[in-house]
Amino acid sequence: FVCFGDIQTFPDDRRAEVIDWLGGLLPEFDLPLDSSDEELREYLIDGTALCYTADKLMPGVLEGVWGGYASDHRSNVKKFLSVIAEMGLPGFSVKDLEEGSMSSIVECLLALRDNVSAGLGENMSNYAAKTPSRPVAPVSTPGRRSPGEDRRRGLWDAKSPQRSPLLSGQKANEVFQFKRGQYTDLPAAKISEMIQSNSLDNAPTQSLLRVVNGILDESIERKRGEIPHRVVYLLRNVVQEIEHRISIQAEHIRNQNSIIKTREDKYRSKIKALETLVNGTNEENEMAINRLELVKVEKSKIDERRKIGEQDMVRLMREKENAENTVTNLQQEIQVMSRMFEEYREQMEEKTSQMEEHLTLRAKEAEFLLTQSKKRVEEVETASELQSQLWSKKANTFRSFMDNQKLSIKDIRISSQSIKQEMFALQMKWRDEISNIGLDLKGLVDAAENYHGVLAENQKLFNEVQELKGNIRVYCRVRPFLPGQDGKSTAVDYIGENGEILISNPSKQGKDGYRMFKFNKIFNTHVSQAEVFSDIQPLIRSVLDGFNVCIFAYGQTGSGKTYTMSGPGKSKEDWGVNYRALNDLFDISLKRRNTFSYEVEVQMVEIYNEQVRDLLSNDIAQKRNTRYLEYFST
Ligand SMILES: Nc1ncnc2c1ncn2[C@@H]1O[C@H](COP(=O)(O)OP(=O)(O)OP(=O)(O)O)[C@@H](O)[C@H]1O
Questions:
Q1: Ligand 1 centroid, distance to 563 Cα (angstroms)
Q2: How does pLDDT run across 52-78, given as a tens digit for each residue?
Q3: Cα separation, 191 vs 174, whole angstroms
Q4: Segments making up each domain of the chain, as ranges
Q5: For residues 45-55, b (16+ Cβ closer than 10 Å) or e, as one string?
Q6: pLDDT digits over 84-130, tens only?
Q7: Tell me, what's the pLDDT at 583?
Q8: Which partner from 196, 324, 439, 467 sits 20 to 30 angstroms from 422, CA to CA?
Q9: For residue 61, what is the DSSP state?
């Protein structure tokens, strides 16, 4: 029958195709077309059906590996798979056959079928011979194309140009799915459809050959006896030869395709390599340009370096000349130094010999000293023994002394305790006395306050006494005759008790020959410096009490002003009024230092011919001081 079903191929259809093929090939294969995968697996799993199929299609192909059925089903399956692998067909794994999907087994068997059918070899003829003959319907043959055109299309059979291109290969394949012996029973419309459609274009070669063989078998069967066996044999051989040539051609085309594909891959890889090379060449060009630039830069640098090198060469030549000169100088210096060194060496050798002699003497002296020191050591050892004996005696004495001292310390401790007790009693007594002293001190403070009051009163009274004595006092000191002066020619006639002095004038007669002067006091010629100062001394105390005091000497030249104010010498008895006044000033200020603080300033001024000079100034120009002059003149 012809399957004009849906053009879509389902796995069930592929399985049915295999079942159909195996049913035609193997007499014992009796599975129905709608058998399941598991039913097909159960039939094929021991591998014997597979091996038998291969042997049927290609007798002797399992020689060497076949050897009959094996008890191990896996071995049979592996033998079949080895044949499939040798043919370059898609195989399957034993595990798929045992428990996996049956699709790979189905596809493998269909590929085997197509491959063997395309080969149209001996196996196919055998296969065809064993299949039951079917009646073949007369098929009109359309016009055939040229063999070259057939080759371009990849198939040998002719196609009419008006065939519909919409029919797919599966559809065309189904168009040629016949049960044998039915070609003659096909309706004319169906045959016309087969011829008009493009089924021939898309049908597998095996199907087409099957049609040819089927029609041939049917025709021979129908014309049994009419066609001679020779013709039948010839016809079969011609068909086989055609199948054989087609298979060779297909194989050749496949080989060509594979060669072209290999070349194409090779050319593609070459194109890729060339593209890479072109890209690389561009990069290399850029790199070469960059390198060229770098080389130029390097060249300019090298030129500069060469110039610098030449300059360095010149400089080095000069330095070399300098160095040679230096070397020459150094050689000369070395010669001088070597001469000096030789001289020095000779001197040192001389000194060394002297030192050796000296050291020999010193060694002898040292040996002598060593001998002496040994003797001394012996003496010292003897003396130390004596000393140690003496020290042991002293130690005994010291021990007895220490024992006595310990006893003494005990006594001292007892005494110290008693002293502590006494000290404690004394402390208590002192405390009482200190408290009494505090009370006495308070009394003294009160007394001192009273004393200060009394003292202030006393000062006040003292200064009042000074004022009563007179704010201005004039004393007269009579200078004795100087050596060489006539002692009889004195003008002092009388010196009274109350400051009167009578001066005689021999050039005048009577009353006019005498004149009386009155002073606060008259110091006669025998009066000492201390006696003169004793009348002035209270005024110094008035100065420290805050009163202004002025003491000055007045008299003609040589009358004794300097003698009275400064004194004739440096001894304390010779001190004049100035020295004594200053001495009292500092004495009283020291006594009062806890109560008062005094500052003392000194000026030495000379007034001569109405010129005032500061005698303490080092600057001669500054000595003249008009301020004093103004002061004194007013
Ligand atoms: N009281 C004296 N006792 C002994 N000698 C005196 C006495 N007074 C003055 N002389 C002597 O008289 C001399 C004159 O005295 P001094 O130089 O003191 O006088 P002067 O007044 O300072 O004179 P001038 O104004 O010239 O300086 C000196 O030799 C001095 O020793």
A1: 5
A2: 888 888 877 776 555 555 567 788 888
A3: 13
A4: 1-124
A5: bbbbbbbbbbb
A6: 888 888 888 888 888 888 888 999 998 888 888 775 444 444 433 33
A7: 95
A8: 439
A9: T
Q: For residue 562, say whether it is annotated as part of any ligand binding site.
A: yes
- To the question of whether residue 556 is assigned a binding role by annotation, the answer is yes
Which residue puts its alpha carbon closest to atom 18 of ligand 1?
560
Residue nearest to atom 8 of ligand 1 (CA): 560
* Per-residue pLDDT at 581: 94
Pocket of ligand 1 (CB under 6 A): 479-480, 482, 555, 557-563, 568
Classified by CATH at the fold level, domain 1-124 comes out as Actin-binding Protein, T-fimbrin; domain 1 (1.10.418)
489 annotated to bind ligand: no
Cα distance between residue 198 and residue 165, in whole Å:
6
What ipTM was assigned to the predicted interfaces of this complex?
A: 0.98
Token pair belonging to 461: 């009274």
Contacts of 145 (CB under 8 A, 6+ apart): 158, 159
Q: For the chain, which residues score pLDDT lower than 50?
A: 1-10, 120-169, 629, 632-634
* 564 CA distance to ligand 1 middle (Å): 8
Its pTM stands at 0.35
Return the pLDDT at 563.
96
Return the residue matching tokens 């050796």: 356
557 is in an annotated binding site: yes
Tell me the CA–centroid distance for residue 567 and ligand 1, in Å.
Answer: 9
